[in-house]
Amino acid sequence: MSALEVGAVEQLSLTVSEATLDAFAAFCGDTNPLHMDGTFAAAHGFATRVSHGAILVAAISALIGTKLPGPGALWRRLQIDWTAPVFPGDTVSLSALVKRVSGVDGSAQLAITGENQNGLTVLRATAVVGLVDGKGSSDSISSPSADGASVAGRGHTGGVVLVSGASRGIGAAIAEKLAAAGHRVLCGYHRSHDAVAAVVSRIEQRGGSALPVVLDVSDLGVAAEQIDDLRRSQGSLVGVVHAATPDLPFEKAAEADWTHVDGLLRAYVGWGLLAAQRVVADAAGREGRVVFIGTSYLHGPPPPKMLAYVTAKSALWGLTKALAAEFGSKGTTVNMVSPSMVQTDLVRHLSERHLLAEARKSATRTLTTADDVAALVGFLFSEAAQQITGAEMPCAGGAVMP
C-alpha cells in the first residue's frame, strides 16, 4: 500500500479469459451475445468475444480496495471513458495515480488508466474515494450526501476545522453547519463558556464532533500559542473560519481613537493571518480552506460611527486577496463571506424599527440570518468550491450588488 499523497502510484494486472466472461455472465446475468458468442461478435466487426466492461470495473475496485488507498476505502464517484475493447486473452494493466488529497471533505481523487499487453490504452477513469484512518487528515470515512457535502456519522469527520467566535450568532451557526458536514469542529470562544457548551452539546446530539477551545484574538502572542497548542493536541487543521469580533467602538470619525482601529486590525487581520498560515502549513499539498467573515459595509457608504470596524474589515479583505494569490498553488483557498445586518449581539442596541428598515433595503425584503451565512460558508468548504478563491461574497439578500 502506498502512502496516500499526491503523486503516489499503484498498479494491478488482470488477464481476461473466456472462462472469466462465462463466470461473470453467470453471476450478473449479462448474456449479451457480443460477450458470449464469437460468431455474433465477428458479425459486428470484432475478432472475437468482447469482455464485459464491468469486469475491469471490478479490477479497479480491487486496485482501490487493496492497494490505493487500500482496505476500508469507500468509493464516492467513478467516471470511465472506454477507449478500446478488451478480448479474451488480453492482460490489462491498471495504474492509479493520486491527483488530489482533500482533508476538507475527507477524500482522494485518483486518475486511473488501463493498458493491454500491446501498450494500447483501453480505459481512462477518475475515481473519488473516501479516506480511512491514517491515510489523510480525516479521522475516518465521510460519506457523501446528495448535495455533495460530507455527512457526519458518529465518529466520522472530514478533518479538523477551527471556528473563532463560535459561542453564538454567525460563528455558532457555522460551527454547527461544518460539524453536520462531517468536520471535527474546534469551537473557539473567549469568555462565554456556557454559550459555547450549548453549541457543542447541540452538535454532539446530532452525531457530530466538537470541542470548546479558548481563543484570544486580540493578543497575537497568546493567539499563536493557543493555535499551535491545538494543532499539537487535536491534529492538523484543514480549515479555519474567522468569525470572532471584539466589542466594537461606536464613535464619530472626528473623535475616532486609533487604538480602537489598531485593536480591531489585530483581532481581524493579525489573528486571521496567523490562523491561515497554520492551515496552509498543515495542508501540505492537500486542500485547505480559509474563510473570513467580512461585512456588506465594504460596499457603498458605511453607516456612521463605525470607522474602526469598516477600516479593519477592509484590511481583512486585502489580506484575503493577498493570501489567496499565494496559497492557491499550495492547495488552500481563501475567501471572504460578507453578510449584511444579521440579528446578533453586534446589533443588539438597534430597535425593531431600525431592523425593519434595514430589511426593506434588500431585494428579498428580509434580514440575513446566521444560517444563511453558515450555508454559504459550508459551500465554500465543499468539493464544489475547490476553484473559488480570492472571492468576496456578499450574503445580503441583494442589499448590495457589487
Structural summary, described in words:
The protein has 402 residues and is of the alpha/beta class. It folds into 2 domains: 9-130, Thiol Ester Dehydrase, Chain A, CATH 3.10.129.10; 143-395, 3-Layer(aba) Sandwich (Rossmann fold), CATH 3.40.50. The protein contains 11 helices and 14 strands. The chain has helices at 18-28, 33-36, 38-43, 53-66, 169-180, 193-205, 220-234, 258-283, 307-327, 352-360, 370-380; strands spanning 9-15, 74-82, 91-102, 107-115, 121-130, 143-144, 150-151, 159-164, 183-189, 209-214, 237-242, 288-293, 332-339, 392-395. The strands form 3 sheets. The protein has a 7-stranded parallel beta sheet, sandwiched between helices. Strands 1-3-4-5-2 form a 5-stranded antiparallel beta sheet. Helix 5 (169-180) crosses helix 11 (370-380) and helix 7 packs parallel to helix 8 (258-283). The longest helix is centred in the C-terminal third of the chain and has 26 residues, at 258-283. The chain is elongated. The relative contact order is 0.10. Mean pLDDT is 88; it is low at 133-157.
Strands ordered across the widest β-sheet: 10-9-8-11-12-13-14
The counted number of beta strands is 14
Proportion of beta-strand residues: 15-25%
What is the N-to-C succession of helices and strands?
EHHHHEEEEEEEHEHEHEHEHEHHE
Backbone structural class? alpha/beta
Question: What is the general shape?
Answer: elongated
Quick one: biggest sheet?
A: 7 strands, parallel
Under CATH, the topology of the largest domain can be stated as Rossmann fold
Going by CATH, what is the homologous superfamily of the largest domain? NAD(P)-binding Rossmann-like Domain
Mean pLDDT: 88
Second rung of CATH, namely the architecture of the largest domain: 3-Layer(aba) Sandwich
Q: What is the rounded distance between the termini?
A: 50 Å
- What is the CATH C level class of the largest domain, in words? Alpha Beta
Helix content bin:
25-40%
List low-confidence stretches.
Answer: 133-157
Number of helices: 11
User: In total, how many domains does the architecture comprise?
Assistant: 2
Rg (CA only): 26 Å
